[in-house]
């Protein structure tokens, strides 16, 4: 993977990129002001890598140029502005082809990257579990393969001279073979890890506890919410993509119903498609969940766009038809106008503050109600000899009423769909008329 943080194209002396010049691009197909919003988001992404932003420029682009995207005149103007700002890195908020990236770096003499490379490096920095590390490494290798002739890449730096010569076509082909072999190896390793995750998931599914996945835009407060709900210690920081690895914790709802809740990676506008593909295994938790909890930072001025982005990613994952509980978080930081706009966007939403605990009980009640709606109501009369079924219903279902009789136990409650067949033979139309057992 091209390591743009080390800005040395042809020597062994390295210098970390510290001063970035950002370029936003407003195209005819974008809404007015959209490029400005994306550029502000790009600034936050770059700063999350520990790189300072020294200046930025917003460019109106009527038609893309094959050589540099922006055209020669505007390209030279941007490079001049970047040099004037003493920038050692240019970040363009549009996808650059390998050829365009090479042309920019040849003209500017500094590292030039796009949004995708920024996000890939953030993911690489934050990944911690074996699966996440493999997924990010695969995405980075696939991104780097067509870019091996760039100046700012470890794999294509000059190798040495003398009898072996410099890095010519032979060395480049060797580099490409190394990367292809590495991609093959990563896919094999990832398939093993994914298989292990599937085994763990199937084990959980054999015990029919309902499941929910927390989804939403990055930095919306998902990890803070799961910590509030379950008492977990998931990393929760005020930065983009603080959590990449899914965390599943058990929650006991007010009606004693158990619920498994999974925290997932945050979404973002223009999330690189290769990362969506790389994280399909991780995000499968979203697909198999009984319902989703969509967390939105209502204090963010762009929360409506964040809402739309998350729904678009869910659609791409094939999870758009899932039951969704919309949760507007950080109400303690939002004003009345923002709350009113949020209510208009999602009238059935819950308004909570994961930080203070405000209205979290309302969210828990909503979750309990959703589970109850999915479970079948039943009246059962179970012999004392099969009290194990009563205990299982207490553990995995919801018992609303229980009464002891001499020959068995009368139960009114709700049964998980996966357990329905085990209780069919004990269903009754009404409470039995037999003698109650004395306590």
Provide key terms for this protein.
single chain; 439 residues; 13 strands; 19% strand; elongated
Q: In order across it, which strands form the biggest sheet?
A: 6-7-5-8-9-10
Secondary-structure-based class equals alpha/beta
Question: Which value, in Å, is the CA radius of gyration?
Answer: 27 Å
Quaternary organisation: single chain
The rounded distance between the terminal residues' Cα atoms is 71 Å
Principal-axis shape: elongated
Low-confidence stretches: 1-13, 154-168
Describe this structure in words.
- The chain is elongated and about 95 Å long.
- 41% of the residues lie in helices and 19% in strands.
- It has 439 residues and is α/β, with parallel strands linked by helices.
- The protein contains 14 helices and 13 strands.
- Helix 5 runs antiparallel to helix 6 (169-206).
- A six-stranded mixed beta sheet has the order 6-7-5-8-9-10, sandwiched between helices.
- It starts with 18 loop residues before the first strand and ends in a 16-residue tail after the last helix.
- Helix 10 (303-317) links the parallel strand 8 and strand 9 (323-329).
- The model is unreliable at 1-13 and 154-168 (pLDDT under 50).
């Amino acid at each position: 993977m091209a390591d743009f943080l080390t800005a040395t194209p042809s020597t062994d002396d390295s210098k970390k990129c510290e001063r970035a010049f950002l370029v936003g691009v407003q195209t005819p197909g974008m809404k007015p002001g959209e490029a400005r919003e994306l550029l502000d988001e790009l600034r936050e992404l770059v700063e999350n890598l520990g790189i300072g932003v020294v200046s930025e420029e917003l460019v109106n682009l009527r038609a893309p140029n094959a050589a540099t995207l922006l055209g020669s005149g505007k390209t030279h103007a941007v490079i001049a502005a970047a040099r004037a700002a003493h920038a050692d890195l240019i970040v363009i908020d549009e996808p650059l082809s390998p050829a365009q990236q090479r042309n920019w770096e040849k003209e500017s003499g500094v590292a030039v990257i796009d949004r995708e490379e920024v996000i890939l490096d953030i993911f690489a920095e934050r990944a911690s579990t074996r699966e996440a590390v493999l997924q990010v490494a695969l995405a980075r290798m696939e991104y780097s393969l067509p870019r091996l002739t760039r100046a700012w890449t470890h794999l294509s730096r000059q190798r040495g001279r003398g009898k072996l010569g410099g890095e010519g076509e032979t060395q480049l082909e060797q580099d490409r073979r190394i990367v292809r072999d590495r991609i093959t190896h990563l896919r094999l390793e990832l398939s093993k890890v994914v298989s292990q995750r599937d085994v763990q998931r199937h084990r959980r599914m054999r015990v029919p506890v309902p499941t929910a996945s927390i989804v939403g835009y990055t930095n919306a407060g998902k990890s803070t919410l799961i910590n509030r709900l379950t008492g977990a210690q998931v990393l929760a920081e005020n930065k983009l993509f603080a959590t990449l690895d899914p965390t599943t914790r058990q929650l006991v709802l007010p009606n004693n119903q158990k619920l498994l809740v999974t925290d997932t990676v945050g979404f973002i506008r223009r999330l690189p498609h290769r990362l969506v593909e790389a994280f399909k295994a991780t995000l499968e938790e979203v697909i198999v969940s009984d319902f989703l909890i969509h967390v939105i930072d209502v204090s963010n001025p762009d929360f409506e766009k964040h809402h739309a982005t998350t729904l678009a990613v869910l659609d791409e994952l094939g999870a758009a038809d899932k039951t969704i509980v919309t949760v507007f978080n950080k109400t303690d930081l939002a004003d009345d106008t923002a709350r009113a706009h949020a209510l208009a966007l999602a009238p059935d939403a819950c308004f909570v503050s994961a930080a203070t605990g405000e209205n979290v009980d309302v969210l828990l009640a909503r979750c309990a109600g959703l589970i109850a709606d999915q479970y079948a109501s039943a009246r059962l009369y179970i012999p004392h000899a099969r009290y194990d079924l009563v205990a299982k219903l207490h553990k995995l279902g919801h018992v609303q009423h229980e009464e002891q009789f001499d020959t068995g136990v009368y139960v009114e409650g709700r049964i998980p769909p996966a357990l329905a067949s085990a209780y069919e033979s004990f269903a009754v139309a009404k409470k039995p008329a037999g003698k109650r057992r004395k306590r």
